[in-house]
Amino acid sequence: MHSVSTRAGTGLRPVEIADAGVFAALAVVIVSIGAFLPHLGVIELLSVVPFALVGLRHRIRAVVAAMIAAGFTAFLVAGVTATAVVVSCAVLGGLCGAVRRWGRGTGTITLAAAALAPLTAATVVGALYVFSATRGLVFASLSASLVGIGRIFGRAFGLTQLQHRADAVSDAVLGAWPVTVSALILLIVPIAMLAANAAVVLVARRVEWLGHSDLLEYALHADDAMAAQPIAPLPLEFEGVGYRHQGGHGPVALIDIDLTIMPGEFVAVVGANGAGKSTLVSLLAGAEPTSGRVRRPGRVGLGLPGGTAIVAQRAETQVIGSTVAEDLRWGLPAGYDIDVEQLLSCVGLTGLAAASTESLSGGQLQRLAIAAALARCPALLVSDESTAMLDAAGRAEVMDLLADLPDRTGTAVVHVTHDPAEAARAKRVISLADGRIDEATGLAATLATGTPAPVTTHAAVADPAVEPVIRLRAVGHRFDAGTPWEATALRSVDLDIRDGEGVLITGANGSGKTTLAWVLAGLIHPTQGTAFIAGAPASESVGAVAVSFQHARLQLQRPTVAEDLLAAAGLDEPLSSERATALVNAALTRVGLPADLGERSIDELSGGQMRRVAIAGLLASGRRILVLDEPLAGLDRESRRDLLEQLGQMRRDEGLTLVIVSHDFEDISLACDRRLEVVHGTLAMPDPPGAALDLAEASRTRSTHVQKRSLVVRAVPGTSPLHRLTPTPKLLALAGATLLGLALPGWPTVAALTALLALGTLLARLPRTVIPRLPWWALLTVAFGALLTAVGSGLDPFVRSLVLAFEFAALSLLTIWTTRVEDLPAAFVRITGPLRVLRAPVDEWAHTLALAVRTLPLLREEARVLLAGHRLRAQPHCGGQLARLRGQVRTVLDLTVALVASAARRSSDLGRASTLRGGMRPVGRRSRLKITSDHMRRQ
């Protein structure tokens, strides 16, 4: 993998900050698992991997930013011990990655570990000397536990010698603690660095695609180099423009393009998948062509007021802020005022300024992305298939907005689309085919070839005498049930799906369609009602129904297409075997993909190809029930029709039961003959109960699944005094309480922290439902620890340690539950601002922290989807114990690598989103802009 970082001494670029922020969040997730689940504590060592990847791709400056962001977040989420682990892993992993980036191998890493281990040991021993009281408390508790173990076994088995030996070993080991601690660190540091090295080698192939630079990043760099020129992207003229990937040596994307875009125009760009539309978008936004000439009167102004703005297809990849208002302002120059409420009203998001972006539906996120573009009053707005993931109503609203912009504001709009009806709204249509402008295809030809087929699906129910393969009765589901964050997704859903049916489930964005799809597959145990698959509870039948997720990239968990298809089919054979080759070729052919695609890397595929490969894997698994969530998004009309025809053919020939969740009706009758609509979490056209529902089942439909309240680490809505207090004093109070507890861990400190906690709880006014229910194993661990120390040398050290740990955790949660995450970067800047005197890059650290806290919930959701995809896969038939163990190890590696690859793609998305916003603006400083176009005066 090649580094893409710029020369030393320059500030971090958006892609570097994005990588640092996302991998910092991943490290915090890993460390938090070890902190909150002690029996998985060893997993904390895996946090070296994210930092190693940052060091592998970027400068040490990026590793430092990641370490600071991760350390700050870990302190807030999991305490001082987790912070120490994060910092240690950042040093080990970052150094390992840097050595690899410098072209060195395992030998150099071993030497680096040998040099670093003594320094680390000296640092830890020195810290233990400084906090001697805490060291004494921990060692006393540990000594009591060791003595307790010796006494219990000694008395139980009459081994008095064991008891005395345990006492002696405890005294010797803890009495010479500097030697013991140093020996452990001298052992752990080389192991951790070599493990990080092995992990980096393992995942490097999966994230190698990140080394390919974004065209828009170069556009942003070129724009900055022309800072003396005014921002004036229009009129725009292409003369014989062409583009080849990989610096002019790769595949041809565009050939001999002649094109003019004038102010106030509305232009549509159409063409099949692979025609060159996305490359054209990059060139419009300032990327440098490999041939031809581009003329503009001034700078492109990518993401700057009065310049060029882009709205892409996938809404979740464009949103950066944690709240709607924060996202609108992200990247805007300091002092540039916008009317948030008016902007949100224009895009149909009235009153949602304070809403968390995590809570928005896909359609709402897309509207927010459009609002963020409009906030810049752009002279040129490029909409790159921005309506592809929206429902019909959302598409109509967005198209009305885009069509109105040229006349109302003078903004030129270029809209890339597969929909002929949307293209008809434009004043001019440009058709691309094989990288060229197809002069023969104008608006009339586009509409003539693009008339959608009538929708013939209906709400009729199949023969009720046939026993359904899936049955839902009174199903409802609430996420985070019983907590202040509770959100209802489904309400009283009754549904029968019979063998061989093709059912289309439609509904607006955010109506609950995806949740229903997960219930149908048994991946979600509904909080109310019952769900059955082939007569058995759905939650006990996971794997009987195959599911294609909305984001197919999370479902593909092996490096290459062929490997993933074989894994999905549960076939544990070499790729070169005749059986494996036949299976891969057949699976790809069934979904209309070429057989030679099997050799391609998963991460090289387009979005449409990923969807087809995921479906091919489901078909290869031999499942007879398929649930496909938005399988048509991003496909051109021909590809969409081909896929639907193939699915319909399989229904007729193979008896496949098919459920398609989609808001796209075009040609859907080729695969489905029945339509249901989800409206606000319930079916607007539900099935009647039917005769097959017996009394025993009817009694079960009233059951309610009681979920345990889990720990939710995000702000609780409220207006209490502690909510209104700015984060800075809360963070300083938390840091002060932690230092006090470490320096003087006695009962007076316990009493002081108890008083502080009581005051905070009183001021916070939090409902009791925020308190999670402790799992049985946690209570058992505490009880066992108390027993050991009681049998040993006394309960006092154990009780004090336990109470202090509880108070630290409670104070952290009070801070988190009463603080909006979007306020944390500003508080961080206020706390670390004095370091600017030492030329510390505080702004870079703050931006990295902002992306880290934004990414934490996204990584949690992606991990949930990855685990669900694994549960759905067919398991290979292993012959013996060793084979099963090998399969389990491979599964863990697959999931780990897939999660890291997912985080890498997430960082790429955020880096691109930041680039589209004009890069990272200095926090709290005024930027200089020069805009001579009269476009701004017309807003």
Short description:
This protein is of the alpha/beta class.
Structural description of this entry:
The protein has 939 residues and is of the alpha/beta class. Helices cover 50% and strands 12% of the residues. It has five domains: 174 residues, no CATH class; 235 residues, Rossmann fold (3-Layer(aba) Sandwich), CATH 3.40.50.300; 160 residues, 3-Layer(aba) Sandwich (Rossmann fold); 72 residues, no CATH class; 98 residues, no CATH class. The chain has a six-stranded mixed β-sheet with strand order 5-6-7-3-8-9, sandwiched between helices. It has a six-stranded mixed β-sheet with strand order 15-16-17-12-18-19, with helices on both faces. A four-stranded antiparallel β-sheet has the order 11-10-13-14, covered by helices on one side. Helix 6 runs antiparallel to helix 7, helix 6 packs across helix 28 and helix 19 runs parallel beside helix 21. The N terminus and C terminus are likely disordered.
